Amino acid sequence: MHYWIEALNGDADLDGILEVEAESFTNPWTREMYAWELQNRSVCHILVVRTAECPVAGFCAFWLVFDEIHINNLAMRPHFRAQGIGTGLLHHVLAEAKELGARRATLEVRASNEGARRLYERLGFYVAATRRNYYSNPVEDALILWRDEPVAG
Length: 153
Ligand SMILES: CC(C)(COP(=O)(O)OP(=O)(O)OC[C@H]1O[C@@H](n2cnc3c(N)ncnc32)[C@H](O)[C@@H]1OP(=O)(O)O)[C@@H](O)C(=O)NCCC(=O)NCCS
Hints:
- By secondary structure, the chain is of the alpha+beta class.
- The protein has a single domain (about 5-145), classed as Aminopeptidase, CATH 3.40.630.
- The protein is about 30% helix and about 35% strand.
- It has a 7-stranded mixed β-sheet, with helices on both faces.
- It starts with a strand and ends in a 6-residue tail after the last strand.
- The relative contact order is 0.15.
- The structure holds coenzyme A (COA).
- Coenzyme A (COA) binds near residues 75, 81, 85, 109 and 118.
């Protein structure tokens, strides 16, 4: 599947992101949460995956905080999953973070989200801590993952 990755570009992309959120998470972020994020563009970065047929096939939202990136959301529309695109997107995010001066990356993942955990572990993330009952709907532990050296490309 041919796809490309670009920085978020305006409200049309935000509509697409909210659709991907609704298709991917039991507690999706709202338009208001993203509007707040987007007022802080020096910290908040959002990359979207585009294909010829779909302007927002997936996305990743992350914060750049000093020399760390905090990956807040990563999701692909169901139709585009299991084709290596999520891996490509995360590679791209780590490479861009490195360009921005980041040396470490962190994120939280539901303990039961085995597909996402495998993806993160393949890209060098490791489990650093567990936050008990962190998630709701359903209640579940969060694993706190870190990666010490953002990869290139
Ligand atoms: C997590 C998520 C972003 C991964 O995106 P993705 O595009 O499906 O990721 P990839 O295709 O790169 O890898 C996923 C699986 O597809 C497999 N895959 C990769 N290329 C493939 C191909 N060409 N053909 C078939 N399978 C392939 C990978 O091996 C991987 O399998 P695994 O589960 O055994 O590790 C996506 O599943 C998603 O949106 N999930 C819901 C939201 C979510 O949980 N986000 C993470 C929150 S922390």
